[in-house]
Amino acid sequence: MIRSLALLLAILICASASTMTCKANSGYNENSRGATTSHNLKPQIEHGFSLLYGLKFTEARVQFAAWQQTNPGDPLGYIAAAASYLFEEFHQQGVLTSAFFLDDKRFLGGIQGKPDAGLKMRFEEANLKGKELALKQIGADPEDADALFALTIANGLQADYAAIIEKNQIESLSLTRKADGYAKRLLAARPDDADASFSLGATNYIIGCLPAYKRFFLWFGGIHGDRLLGMDQLKIAAEKGHYLKSFAKIFLALAAMREKQYELARRLLNDLAAQFPENPLYRTELSLLEKYSTGTNNGE
Q1: Beta strand spans in the chain (E)
Q2: Bigger pLDDT: 26 or 84?
Q3: Cα(293)–Cα(249) distance, integer angstroms
Q4: Residue 231 burial class via C-beta count within 10 angstroms: exposed 0-12, middle 13-18, buried 19 and up
Q5: In contact, 149 and 195? CB cutoff 8 Å
Q6: What are the pLDDT digits (tens) for 36-76?
Q7: What is residue 35's predicted lDDT score, i.e. its pLDDT?
Q8: How confident is the model over 102-147, as pLDDT tens digits?
Q9: Phi and psi, residue 256, nearest 5°
Q10: Is the pLDDT higher at 284 or at 294?
Q11: Which residue pairs from 24-31 have beta carbons closer than 8 angstroms and sit at least 24 positions apart in sequence?
């Protein structure tokens, strides 16, 4: 059973447990693409995440490093860099693809092959530095929303790495609970943080995809899942998210393909392909989507 729980928080950059609740919108609305949350303006972090979604990992880290240099006390600069290393590992392992999402063995069991040792080292160093700075800020102000956001992401990143890359399920669950606690405090301090909705939605969706008897065991650990609620929460993040908005779109598009909601997946992938034309993944998935939707793909 433990082996099958390897991806309780699969590919979450910002994990939290699904015991939290969130008001869900009825569907993805392209007219709300410009909505944002109340994060403080951090232009180099913004630009870095945009480069990240275009698979420009080195260029993204240049932006994050520039922010670190001018804002050495801000944990998000380091945690964003950590996210870039994890995202690069995901790309190398083919995690953010329909081939991964539509294969239950991989989606609920982790990657095949070995991770990049260099990426792991740099990921751990950046994430640890960010966590140390955020914990210092929390010590001074327990309701500091930016610090809580940083800690939610940092612990979520570690949970993701443990579950997806290292397949260390016990460590991942422990980190998930930590991320959950920070996420609850974050939403109490900043209720409109739609990036937290991404965290909630991804967790709800993945756990909701598990067979019933496995979800039963998770209930005893205080972890619940609801596939449909997860989809609705992912839609909120895809509409109104901030740093994780595009990541929410990627996740939601692939989840929609699992659910055979092909029109939703098509709209999201078209949106991503237009926004990040340098990333061939979205066009590739659009081509595969046509095969899935017509039943001409061999994996269908």
Answers
A1: none
A2: 84
A3: 19
A4: buried
A5: yes
A6: 345 677 999 999 999 999 999 999 999 999 999 999 999 99
A7: 37
A8: 887 777 666 777 888 999 999 999 999 999 999 999 999 999 999 9
A9: -60, -35
A10: 284
A11: 24/229, 24/232, 24/233, 24/235, 24/236, 25/232, 25/235, 25/236, 25/239, 26/232, 27/235, 27/264, 28/235, 28/238, 28/239, 28/252, 28/264, 28/267, 28/268, 29/239, 30/267, 30/271
Q: Given the structure tokens 């001409």, which residue do they identify?
A: 296
Does residue 13 sit in helix, strand or coil? Answer: coil
CA proximity to 284, closest of 253, 261, 258? 253
Distance between CA atoms of residues 252 and 238, nearest Å = 8
Residues 216, 222, 226, 231: is their CA dihedral positive or negative? Answer: negative
Half-sphere CA count of 153, side-chain side, radius 13 A: 29
Structure tokens at 79: 């945690």
N residues, the chain: 300
The answer regarding whether domain 3-294 maps to CATH 1.25.40.10 reads yes
Q: What is the pLDDT of residues 203-238, one digit of tens each?
A: 677 777 766 656 666 665 566 667 888 899 889 889
DSSP 166: S
Amino acid found at 45:
I
Q: Which residue has the tokens 């039963």?
A: 216
Res 144: pLDDT? 95
- Asked whether the predicted pLDDT for residue 5 surpasses 60, the reply is no
d(CA 122, CA 150): 18
Q: What are the residue boundaries of the structural domains of the chain, listed by start?
A: 3-294
Residue 181 to residue 240: CA distance in whole angstroms: 22
Q: Say if CB 93 and CB 111 are below 8 A apart.
A: yes
Q: Give the chain's largest Cα–Cα span.
A: 58
- 107-to-163, 177, 193, 225 alpha-carbon distances in Å: 11, 21, 27, 15
